[in-house]
Amino acid sequence: MSATLPLSHPLAGQRPPRGQRLPRQRRPKIRVLALLLVLAGLVLAGQGVWIHAKAMLAQVLLDRAFAETLATGRSVKPWPWADTWPVARIDLPRLGESAIALAGASGQALAFGPGHVQDTPEAGDPGTAVYAAHRDTHFRVLRDVKPGDEIEVTRRDGRRVSFRVTGTRVATWDVSGIDPRAPGRNLVLATCWPFDATTRGPYRYLVEAEEIRQPGPVVADASMAP
Amino acid sequence: MTSMTREAPAGLWPALQSRFGHAAPLLLLSLLLAVLTLAAGGRAARAELGPALVTPGEMQSGALLFRANEKGRYVEAPRLGTDVDLTVSGPTARAHVTQVFQNPTDQWVEAVYVYPLPEDGAVDTLKMVVGDRVITGDIAAREEARRTYEAAKLAGQTAGLVEEERPNLFTTSVANVGPGETVLIQIEYQETVRQSGDRFSLRVPLVVAPRYSPAPVTQSVDFKPGQGGWGQANTDPVPDRDRITPPVLDPRDNAPVNPVTLTVKLQAGFPLGEVVSANHAVAIETQGPDSRVVTMKGPVPANRDFELSWTAAAGAAPSVGLFRERVAGEDYLLAFVTPPALKQAEDKRPRDVVFVIDNSGSMGGASMDQAKASLLYALGRLSPADRFNVVRFDDTLDVLFPDVVPADAEHVGRAKSFVSALEASGGTEMVPAMQAALTDHGTEGAPRLRQVVFLTDGAIGNEQQLFDTIAGMRGRSRVFMVGIGSAPNSFLMSRAAELGRGTFTQIGAPGQVQERMRTLFEKLESPVVTNLSASFSAGAADATPETLPDLYRGEPVVLAAKLAALSGTIEVKGMIGDRPWIVSLPVAQAAKGEGLSKLWARRRIADTEVAQTLGQIGPEQADQRILSLALQHHLVTRLTSLVAVDKTPRRPDGAVLSRNDIPLNLPAGWDFDKVFGARPKPEFRQAGLLLPAAARADTPAASKPVPVEDVVLPQTATDAELRIIAGLLLLLAGLTVFACGRRSTGGRA
Question: Which of B45, B718, B729 sits opposite A134 (nearest CB)?
């Protein structure tokens, strides 16, 4: 490598000999450029890492708050200035993953955990409960969920409801085809799709599940028979 | 839970390494910048991902999608084509306007189209072609026609309805246009050719400019008996704002819609000189000395008015025209008389001129430039003996000087810099501006002429309020309206000028500013023909206008009358300056004309409206007179509509009918943002198309007959990876540059 190489464009051809003095004249500028690039890179990468760190750290605090909610029956804010609070824990036993879901699916809430989409019932109530989370944090695990998997939801009133995954599909954000008043007790976990995209898009990946009927109510029905 | 930079950079690494190997940091840098740009544009990319890069409008070749009842679903607007066929026979023109409504959807639709017609046009015929059937419309009182139409709509019959919203603004509704079907609506109207000096002209408005409709601030209070003193405040200044504000397309996002073809068969009745189309390219075919066929080169989008003008061959200019028609046993007469242009002493009375300029948002673009150029020209024409003032308005108002000031160099200079600095923005509160202009502080010394020159595009919906203001405050002032832009509200202009006893000048293109303003100033400076009257020797005649208005230079007397007998003479008398002028027309020698009865009725109706505005007759009396005239002469008015119903029911029971408003183009030269504020985000429009058809059919909601409110899912992607990748690449680039810098110095050492 000749000394002039760093500044010459490969297509620019040979530089005249006096160009050899250029590197020394430009050296401080190169330093500044390099420093700026490094700084910008650190900031940018730091922001990206912070998004993931926030998502993980928040879950620790949320876990505590939710435990307190279960114990006291009150909604507990995970940290004093939070504008949301934990409403459920979602467990995927086969994959060993769990996450605390928050009230509302605003962008701020989603930074900390899955959000319970407004105007949908709570998991285990009649209709379709919808929880959404980021594809690259809490719900990255959805790509590994298969039909037949169990999803367990612990509600803030302490009730545990089990769902079985019936299928997965892709829809756009506004034509989700999810009817919150659909018959039965259903659950939908939603995240962005495709999983590996780096930009945002209109598509959503939906994991659909229905409640696994507990034997309890059947006994109750039988008792009503003549 | 996730690892960074997993798959995404996989394709980037080899490329980076190879480039790195060739030590080309600059190339690397440019690559990085591209990545950065991508990161910054992440938000935008959300809306433009994949096939969504094209808007639905582009995908559907100029069609517009409307948000349907079901969230996230869209229907395509009906398409429309318009053909205008005009026949000019002497003083009148007969127009056939054919609107082709095409339904591109697989649903039954109702199409609603708002469109302009000349303000003095008498709309008298509606024909609807469905398949191979032609149905002719009937005239009926507006409410009755509406009921007939609604009943047909419910019964699944195809029906057409033509209603007047303003004298120059009409609505056609077509119910039950079947999937993929085309329905033709043809309306016919009659109008008078306009004459000014030796120039005859015809204007076909092709687009409705979006109008500024002031918020309801002035209210009146209704007390109903038995409410114990409690009543409702109401009276929106624009009670029909929904009816006159159709959707308007942003020309930057949409190809122009509503193509128009236009043909004029011109039979002037005298040898023709020059025939000119002001705004459109035309082909002119000569068919004889007094006959031409003018075809607009097109089709063109409906975004500017068509204007055709013609003159007589040298020496052949007619100064008198007399035409008659016999309809239902009655004789109608139309007379034109151009007063002689006498050389006479100029009126030396000094003038007070108040210029009013509209700098509202609707004037943005070419209109504002034309208005400013016109006003600057006008300021330059003032003589030192004149006094003047300048008022500018949008939804605020500025009066330049406290009162009229002498037109000396200093004041004119100040006014010119004031006008030059104007920019178009805001709403159009025209009434306070007119009030300010008409506020007369009286005059000391010699009597002065008081003139108001009002430059605007007239894009307002509360016309009646403005008319009331002029009627109530005009005093000794005369109002000269100057219509600016490619599609001014000519109804407002001509009615305001009529009430203000002035004239209406139209400036449609920058090239017209000089010539038209000069003509206007000749009118302002020239003595008018005053004290005009017409008398019929053969006894009673029902003439319109009842009192002839004063004339400005080059304007003819236009008189329409219903006669008891076709004999005797009409004597027109007046004063030109201080000299009496009399002309006598032999009625029996009138030539045959067409549609004169309709024109007479239309003018009579306009007179009635003016009389009501001036408080000469009450509203009930006016309504009654208009209704009977309209029903007798088969005319569409604000009280009557044309309705056509195809008796055969066609839409099957249970099929849903959806209503679509046909969007309008923005008039040429208008600035979309100035009129509608910030540009609407297109994001919500495109999503409906993104879903592959198969996926849409699979969704449970789609298979259900009842529309379902879908859950709208939040954005669930972060740009964490993008930031990390971009960040690492930047870091790498920085280190590389640093390393290379070091190595190069090391090499030298």
Answer: B718
Q: Which CATH architecture has domain B74-223+232-310+637-649?
A: Sandwich (2.60)
Residue of chain A whose Cα is closest to the Cα of B730? A41
Q: Where are the domains of chain A?
A: 52-218
- C-alpha span between A192 and B106 (Å, rounded): 32
Q: What share of chain B is helix, strand, coil (3-state, %, to 5)?
A: 30, 35, 35
Q: What is the pLDDT of residues B687-716, one digit of tens each?
A: 222 222 223 333 333 333 333 456 778 877
Contact predicate B602/B638, CB 8 Å: no
pTM score of the predicted model:
0.54
Check CB contact under 8 Å for A137 and B709: no
Instruction: Give the domain ranges of chain B.
Output: 74-223+232-310+637-649, 351-525, 529-632
CA B360, CA B419: separation in Å to the nearest integer?
Answer: 14
With 80 as the cut, is the pLDDT of residue A58 above it? yes
Same fold, B74-223+232-310+637-649 and B351-525: no
Is 3.40.50.410 the CATH number for B351-525? yes
Per DSSP, the three-state class of B254 is: coil
ipTM of the prediction: 0.72
Q: Point out the residue among A10, A23, A172 whose CB comes nearest to the CB of B24.
A: A10
Alpha carbon B495 to its chain's center: 16
pLDDT digits (tens, 9 = 90+) for A143-178: 889 888 999 999 988 889 999 999 888 888 777 778
- What six digits make up the tokens of B541? 């005649």
Q: In this complex, how many residue pairs, one in chain A and one in chain B, have their CB atoms less than 8 Å apart? A: 258
The CATH homologous superfamily of the domain defined by A52-218? Sortase (2.40.260.10)
Token digits of residue B25 = 């940091």
pLDDT reading at B536 higher than 50: yes
Q: Count each helix (H run) and each strand (E run) in chain B, helices first.
A: 18, 38
